[in-house]
Fold:
Amino acid sequence: MANLKEISRQIKSVTNTQKTTKAMKLVSSSKLRKTLELSEQAKSYALKINEVLSEIAARVSNVHSDDNLNRAFVPNENPKTVDIVFVTADKGLCGGFNMTTIKEVRKLIQEYTDNGTIVRLRAAGRKGIDYFNFQGRELLDSIVGMTSAPTYEKASDFIDDAFEDFNNGTTDKVIMVYNGFYNMLSQELKTKNLLPIALDEVAVDNTSSMLDIEPDDDEAILTDLTAKYVVFNMYYSLIDSLAAEHSARMSAMDNATSNAKERVNDLTIEFNKARQAAITTELIEIISGVEALK
Structure:
């Protein structure tokens, strides 16, 4: 029979763990509410800039051939070099949140390398960086601390090199991968072709528009707006990923708290059985001693 002192120690340890996981759930819940508010604001802007950019690009493409159109809007089905930009968390204790993104990145690497495409990785988040460093995979760019406290300036600094490499022809495609927020209980893996931009993302009404672009200005407007599009999509992915991280951690901590509670109940039953057995043993020894004295 297990030692009463040892069982008591285990109960105390699991109870302390239960208190910690419950507190972590409450903290993540509070952070999630704040992040969701920011996410809703960012999402509205992201949708609008995508809509405006798609309309401008579609209108310009009507008067330019593919050879003269900004390469950010020319589809490339056989890229020679691809940049994969992916986002993971800086911390763990959030279930399979990080591995979902990592598995998708590995899948994309395999698909492109099998076709002879050079794949370069740009990582945001300690967990993804640590994983690929451990695997011996070279990272072209990496940053820690941005995913837990995203800002527009940090997003811009991080993605600018990828945008510049695409513009000067060093890379042919930029793909973004991250685990986004779906609801309070689940997350949604998102894989987006950041560059080139698909012109069919938004249906364009050619009969009416609020946009009035001078012919000589179209290239400058496209370049400037494309840069804003890329940066803001990077920024939004960080916010969306952070919201998903908090929801994943809430679920993980809730499950951990429930498991700890069940474990405490099991240990309590085991403790009571062990104590009852100890009492029974003592009574038998006393009775046996009395009988031996007769």
About this structure: The longest helix spans residues 218-293. Residues 207-211 have pLDDT under 50 and may be disordered. Helices lie at 4-61, 97-114, 126-134, 152-167, 218-293. The chain has five helices and five strands.
